[in-house]
Specification:
Strand order of the largest sheet: 4-3-2-1-7
Number of strands: 15
Shape: globular
Number of helices: 13
Helix content: 25-40%
Structural class: alpha+beta
Largest sheet: 5 strands, antiparallel
Length: about 400
């Protein structure tokens, strides 16, 4: 009898121990590498991978130290490649390809946008008349690559896509690549044409059979943009936009003086979250092409974009008459441009367009009327910058 009682007592103790060991919480236990981790019962508990990470039943949980709503560091860069080599007698032309990229902390492209300016004009009796100031993206199907470019069926599939479709294919192709990998994209010369196209079947199969040298060069410039700007955002929460606007301010030629073709362009890139700017850049080009009364083309004066020229743009050296805020100094253009880009962070396209301006008496110069921007040293004319930045926001995708 005593033996039976003793056995029953042992069984009760065993059941009690098992019950305690399997009870719902087991709080403050250690797992994995033993660093204060908790084994979960499915409700907001943690299990370790070495750095206090959290797993749970799918609600408000973390994996590997991050959550779906965690912001990461990114960089926005913009690059512009300019050429006037297509100019001919009586037909000046300015070509510029612009790329905007977003790079992650590892230097990989997570988003890319491209566009191109192909400003064309005619010269007659010493007068310049612009014939196209739209970008290739703006022209869309009216660029007529699909209609008139059948000789450019370099991949042999019987189809030549529009420029904007081919540009989008290249944009997608470089996502995930580093600048070194973009620089290393292999090309080939189409026999008999001198056309330099991609060599990679993946890009050709996607329909990108146009010459990609300027695409590559602009994207590389954007990736290496030393004046690029950093921002924080949740992955996949933002869109990227790019825009370019051009104007013709050419000077006519006479029998005594040469004329100057001045088809200038402004550019902008914006990163947008919920319709508001989280990062922005703007730049401008001012190539000048000399010409004679008979329309013959002379030398081109172009040393780089305004951001690239930096101090060589000489606004600080020669622009003292533009001390519109009265602080006794005039900042270089690229510095003023950067101040404008910082100022528009948090604004929508409509708010950028609605920024107050005023005309400087006696000059016709249109500057900001907002003290915060003027105090930051941005006293340059902002009408064109406002317009192109707002357009970049609207183009973001």
């Amino acid at each position: 009898m005593k033996r039976i009682f003793a056995m029953l007592l042992c069984l009760c103790m065993i059941f009690a121990i098992v019950a305690c060991d399997t009870k719902g919480g087991n709080e403050e236990t250690t797992a994995a590498n033993g660093e204060n981790t908790t084994a979960a019962n499915g409700e907001n508990t943690t299990t370790a991978n070495g750095e206090n990470t959290t797993t749970a039943n799918g609600e408000n949980t973390t994996a590997g130290g991050t959550t779906e709503n965690t912001e990461a560091e990114y960089k926005l860069g913009m690059g512009i490649v300019v050429s006037t080599e297509s100019s001919a007698a009586e037909k000046p032309q300015v070509d510029a390809t612009v790329a905007a990229v977003v790079l992650d902390a590892d230097g990989k492209i997570v988003a890319c946008r491209l566009d191109a300016v192909q400003n064309k004009a005619t010269i007659a009796d010493g007068v310049v008349t612009a014939t196209n100031l739209k970008t290739k993206m703006e022209l869309g199907d009216d660029y007529n690559m699909a209609k008139h470019g059948q000789s450019m069926d370099w991949n042999g599939d019987g189809v030549v896509k529009e420029w904007y479709d081919q540009a989008k294919a290249f944009e997608n192709y470089v996502v995930g690549k580093t600048v070194a990998e973009v620089e290393a994209i292999e090309t080939q010369v189409v026999e008999g044409s001198g056309y330099v196209i991609a060599k990679d079947d993946a890009l050709l199969s996607a329909g990108c059979t146009i010459q990609i040298t300027d695409f590559v060069a602009a994207v590389v410039k954007a990736c290496k943009d030393e004046q690029g700007t950093g921002f924080k955002a949740v992955a996949d929460s933002f869109t990227l936009g790019v825009a370019a606007n051009s104007a013709d301010t050419s000077v006519a030629a006479t029998a005594e003086t040469t004329g100057t073709v001045q088809m200038f362009s402004d550019f902008a890139a914006t990163v947008v979250v919920d319709g508001k700017i989280v990062a922005a850049l703007n730049d401008a080009i001012q190539p000048k092409i000399a010409f004679n009364l008979d329309g013959t083309i002379g030398e081109t004066d172009f040393g780089g974009t305004k951001r690239e020229l930096k101090e060589d743009y000489h606004m600080a050296a020669y622009g003292q008459s533009m001390d519109w805020n009265g602080d006794g100094k005039v900042l270089e253009w690229y510095v003023q441009s950067a101040e404008f880009s910082k100022y528009v962070v948090g604004k929508t396209a409509a708010e950028v367009e609605a920024m107050a301006t005023k005309v400087v008496e006696g000059s016709g110069y249109i500057i900001s009327a907002e003290d915060a921007l003027l105090s930051a040293g941005c006293t340059i004319q902002i009408t064109d910058i406002k317009a192109v930045v707002a357009e970049a926001v609207n183009n973001a995708k």
